[in-house]
Design a protein that fits this description.
- 66% of the residues lie in helices and 0% in strands.
- It is an all-alpha fold and 274 residues long.
- Helix 1 packs parallel to helix 4, helix 1 packs across helix 11 and helix 4 packs parallel to helix 6.
- The longest helix is centred in the middle third of the chain and has 19 residues.
Length: 274
């Protein structure tokens, strides 16, 4: 179960308009605007430029307060989950911020648990289901006890989102990551990880969607020894947003024989609780 600890460290998400209207057009637009910003934030180093990146997130939240307040309660929680997860992305590599990260993610997890308790899928939108899974994944990275407690609860959240919208690229992408990280005895499968990730690429519509899905698919192909395919899809991500620091780093890391997943493991200073 230890491999779960690093799940969704490179948490990725984007948006668009979807076939099934499980969220309002206003919510879709706000998420889309935020993850356009999130793609643009990949020009920053997660450690050296952390303060600047977080300042841009703060400014976005302030500038879009009216849009946020117009959303339903479940939509607001989904958007808030995205804000918190992106903050986490620019904090978790700093060991001095470990307590801040742990407390922030635990608080958000408890908020999701309280809101979603006893609600049916008809009362929960697809974005909330998937981001609830993301928050859970990041939260349990600080404790082996939480890995054991929450590790198997994430997959059903992604699957429920897919049930609401089978062509939802984000839930397919994150389910693919779950299959990658989960041990075989818990249902993990690199073959299924590639299949889900391929589906997410096929469902992507906007530039941010295509950027993130191509990047993730490339690294799963790399893990499955398809280096030519990995290079091809990573190049597609680079074409969409050539300024991305992580894409350029991964070109170098892949040349050394390392994938995104190995790169993130090596960079993380987070330790398990004893």
């Amino acid at each position: 179960m230890k491999k779960f600890i690093f799940s969704v460290i490179f948490s990725v998400a984007v948006s668009g308009l979807f076939a099934q209207g499980s969220v309002s057009a206003e919510c879709d637009k706000l998420i889309g605007d935020f993850f356009q910003l999130r793609m643009e934030l990949t020009v920053y180093d997660q450690v050296k430029d952390s303060v600047k990146a977080r300042s841009e997130i703060d400014q976005f939240v302030k500038n879009h307060e009216a849009e946020f307040n117009s959303l339903s309660e479940d939509e607001q929680l989904a958007v808030e989950n995205f804000y918190v997860n992106e903050y986490y992305n620019f904090l978790y590599l700093d060991s001095k911020q470990k307590d801040v990260c742990r407390d922030m993610m635990k608080k958000q997890l408890l908020k999701n648990e309280a809101f979603c308790k006893d609600k049916t899928d008809d009362e929960l939108n697809k974005w909330l289901l998937v981001t609830y899974g993301d928050v859970t994944s990041c939260s349990m990275a600080f404790s082996m006890k939480d890995v054991m407690k929450y590790g198997l609860s994430i997959k059903p959240l992604y699957e429920r989102a897919i049930a609401l919208d089978p062509d939802f690229f984000y839930s397919n992408m994150n389910l693919g990551q779950w299959y990658y990280w989960a041990p075989g005895m818990a249902g993990g499968s690199k073959k299924k990880a590639v299949s889900c990730s391929k589906k997410s690429v096929e469902c992507a519509r906007t530039d941010p969607e295509k950027y993130y899905t191509n990047l993730m698919y490339s690294q799963l192909l790399f893990e499955n020894k398809d280096k030519d395919g990995a290079a091809r899809y990573l190049e597609e991500a680079r074409k969409i947003f050539p300024q991305s620091k992580i894409v350029n780093i991964l070109v170098e890391e892949n040349a050394k024989g390392k994938s995104l997943f190995e790169y993130n493991k090596e960079r993380s200073d987070l330790k398990e609780e004893k």
